[in-house]
């Protein structure tokens, strides 16, 4: 049966599937992950700035 299936085939390509966990680890640098975790901690502590959508510049300045 394999002879019938592979007749006329010159080669077989093997493709490795990358798991999402491995892929995510490669996408984000350690420095970036550290910044995000730090920002999340700041939010939990209440260290945030609230902006008035009707007066953004007034909220910042």
Task: Walk me through what this model shows.
With 61 residues, the chain is mostly helical. The chain starts with a helix and ends with a helix. Helices cover 54% and strands 0% of the residues.
Helix share, percent: 40-55%
Molecular shape: elongated
- How far apart are the first and last residues' alpha carbons, in Å? 76 Å
Q: DSSP helix count? A: 4
> How big is the Rg?
26 Å
Largest sheet: none
How would you summarize what this structure contains?
With 61 residues, the chain is mostly helical. The chain is built from four helices and no strands.
What keywords describe this structure?
61 residues; mainly alpha
Topology (elements, then pairings):
Layout: H1 2-5, H2 20-27, H3 30-45, H4 56-60
């Amino acid at each position: 049966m394999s002879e019938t299936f592979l007749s006329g085939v010159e080669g077989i390509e093997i493709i490795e599937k990358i798991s999402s966990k491995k892929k995510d680890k490669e996408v984000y640098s350690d420095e970036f992950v550290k910044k995000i975790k730090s920002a999340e901690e700041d939010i939990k502590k209440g260290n945030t700035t609230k902006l008035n959508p009707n007066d953004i510049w007034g909220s910042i300045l």
